[in-house]
Amino acid sequence: MWWGLSFLGGLTVIFVLVLLTSIVTGEAETQPAWLGIIGGPILLGTAWACYRGLEALLVSKGDKSYAMVPEQRRLSVVTSLGAALGAITIAVMGSSLIGWVQAELIGIEIEEQAAIVELVARGDAVELALLTLTAVVLAPLAEELLFREMFFRRLYHRTGLAAALIVPALAFAISHWNPVGLAVYAWLAVVFALTYLYTGRIFAAILAHAGHNAIVLAILVFGPESPLQP
Predict the structure, then answer these.
(1) At a CB cut-off of 8 Å and minimum separation 6, what does 128 contact?
(2) pLDDT band of 113, cuts 50, 70, 90
(3) pLDDT digits (tens, 9 = 90+) for 194-204
(4) pLDDT digits (tens, 9 = 90+) for 13-54
(5) How confident is the model at residue 62 (pLDDT cuts 50, 70, 90)?
(6) Which of 42, 50, 163, 180 could cross-link with 13 by S-S, CB 3.0 to 4.6 Å?
(7) Rounded to an integer, what distance in angstroms lies between the CA atom of residue 26 and that of residue 123?
(8) Alpha carbon 188 to chain centroid, angstroms
(9) Rounded to 5 degrees, what are φ and ψ at 70?
């Protein structure tokens, strides 16, 4: 009961924040591109903080809060760093394979979010710096705390691995507002979740996420198909 109430309460908070953001910033077409980019992690980070507060409330009422794995089963920091590097490789290679299969089978190529492409195409140094900060630091931190440290961890201990992988992966994919990329985002969610489960350390999932985003951003900015290329 209390878990259901906490979930609904968190969704209500997210809805209110989205509504307030739209009122304050005005219509989407009048917003600068960077506002939508940096606003997402801030919103998700706020949602995580709300869920964390609700979890503390549940614990105070007798509910149990479990760590991802017992402390004695956590990998060492050095080993976890190695696992994060491996997860980056798996994430990038898997994403590329999914993109290729999707393009070959159904003829739909995966494209980056339009707001990000627009921001890169302008080539403004300040905006590119904000994009880099968001993609490599803020987004991995906020998204891993919410979708893995909170949702995946709690679902894993209450429902088992299957539901804990599927439900947060779908939420993570949908949150990116990129329908043609749903399969890729779901794949990434599974990779990051298993990294967290394997190491027992959320920082490993955050690093894997950050490394993947850094590679994708570098390709977008410096690659042969970059909008910055003449």
Answers:
(1) 119, 120, 221
(2) confident
(3) 999 999 999 99
(4) 555 555 554 444 444 445 555 566 777 787 788 778 877 887
(5) confident
(6) 50
(7) 25
(8) 8
(9) -60, 150
Domains in the chain: boundaries: 69-222
Token pair in block for residue 61: 């009422």
The residues near 112 (Cβ < 8 Å, ≥ 6 apart) are 178, 216, 220
Q: If you search the block for the tokens 């760093």, which residue do you land on?
A: 81
From residue 10, alpha-carbon distances to 7, 157, 206 in Å are 5, 19, 22
Report the greatest alpha carbon distance in the chain: 62
Residue 122 in contact with residue 187, Cβ under 8 Å? no
| CA 118 to mean position of chain CA atoms | 21
Among all chains, which residue has been given the structure tokens 């961890």?
A: 153
Higher pLDDT pick, 90 / 51: 90
